[in-house]
Amino acid sequence: MSRIKNKVRKSLLTATVLFMAIFLFAGPAWADDYQPRKKGSITIRLNDIGSYKGNVEFAVYQVGKPVGESNLQWQLTEKFAGCKVDLNALNTAEAQKEAADILEKEAVSQTADFAGKTDKQGVLSFPNLEQGIYLLRQTEKGVYGTVESFLAAIPYMIDGESWIYDVPASPKAEPLPSTPSLSITPEVSPSITPSITPGVSPSLTPSITPEKTPGTPPSNNSSGGASSEEKNAVKTGDETPLKRTLLLLIFASATGGVIVLVKKKRS
What we know:
The protein is α+β, with helices and mostly antiparallel strands. It is built from 3 helices and 12 strands; from the N terminus they run αβββαβββββββββα. The protein starts with a helix and ends with a helix. The model is unreliable at 8-32, 200-208 and 229-236 (pLDDT under 50).
């Protein structure tokens, strides 16, 4: 019985020693896992919000840089040193958004470190980046929508165990507001319809009103008929040659009669 108890004690002691050895080894392994000189990347993948995801431009600004090699801490870069932001206290989404808003106001007046546009799948990658905290802001919307500015850290840790140097990002976005379509009725100029007398073809030649002689009463034109002046003009033109002929005959007869009378008197 005592032998069995001794075996159990030895087994428990061995297990305890092994557990402590694993735990002590794991600690230094976790610390050595961080590589202070390793570069990383940021890859943006736009969310599907029902619009075309290509040609969306982003600018990248390094706003923070690492301090120390064993215990990773951050401090603002020289260009953003005047911003009142604690990069080591960004533990919530609200704190990160507030910091991004403050840093973006300064970034507008700064030159971006990197810039690029998404492909038609909405993907944009910035490779070979130094370790630091980066502000990414949209500078051209395209037809996609509005993307919130956001912060990304290279590297960052997940589960308290693993360092991630290649950072994926799918920022929050909202589609562009739809523009209401306006129903515009084209202005129609009033059409001028010529007054057409039945039976008479409309003419494009401008009508010329004959000059009126002073004292001549106005003509009363009736639809489809000639004026009284036109009728008189026609009659006068027809009777004038006839009157002249009659006068000549009368004058000739009178002359002949006079000649005859003169001859008779002489004889």
